[in-house]
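Team,

Forwarding the record for the chain on the shared tracking sheet. I've put the sequence and predicted structure together so nobody has to dig through attachments.
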Amino acid sequence: VYRTTKYRFPCFFLTVKTSLGMGRVVATVIPQYENEELLVEGLQILKQWNPKWSPSFTMTDKSSVELGAIATVHPSCVCLLCDFHRAQAWERWVNKSANGVLPEHRD
């Protein structure tokens, strides 16, 4: 929902994969600003509430705020990039004229 409502507030969802393979939102962090320091604070609060929480892997889009916050709070956690967002970023890069990819080579 971030940047899709008139309120434009940053919103981070923590989702876990269930034993049935479904994703479920288990926490939401809504900081005043989208920055690493505030997201670290939110993740640290979640970690205090769940002291045994130590994820091996996370998945995110290519957000330096998210990647930095996860690395700070869970330094041994491996961050994976979401395939949808990776493909979207590639498509945008290829179609940006400043990158010099000719239309006939974009596919």
